[in-house]
Hints:
Layout: H1 7-10, H2 13-37, H3 42-51, H4 54-68, E1 83-93, E2 96-104, E3 115-123, E4 137-144
Antiparallel strand pairs: 1-2, 2-3, 3-4
Amino acid sequence: MAAPPTISQLQDPAYWNAVLATLNHIAGEATRDALSAQKVDPDVAQALRQIYGPTVFQNQYQALVRVAGGERSGLITPPGDVAANVTGVVKAASDCVTLTAMLDYSKVNPTVPTAPNVVKLLPRQPVEDAAINPTPWIIDQFFIIEAPEDSQQCVG
């Protein structure tokens, strides 16, 4: 999957579902590892750095620290992976992709409602570890859609 996508793949929700499934599985493994070790090991932090942009990394890392420290309200043990269902490709270019997707947390934390989200992906940098993240992408942002204008092109 690490090969650059073709033009048709960039427009194909099935391609993006596969990318998000891979990235969400890496995040799920990191969560399961942190729960098992009751701490966030450097390898787990490194895995998160390989799939997330800086802001999302910080948020996800802090959430894992809380989970490893015992804050598990609503969390299924062991948690599964977030499931994504891409509903639209807003922008697809080699330097930035914006998708709309339903993110389903029911196998992680059923108290989190399934909701429409905007997911922004950026190309994975060549220096990053393809053994951890076999896709050519990282998640730079994701947020619940509150209004149609929230799904604008790759900005911010």
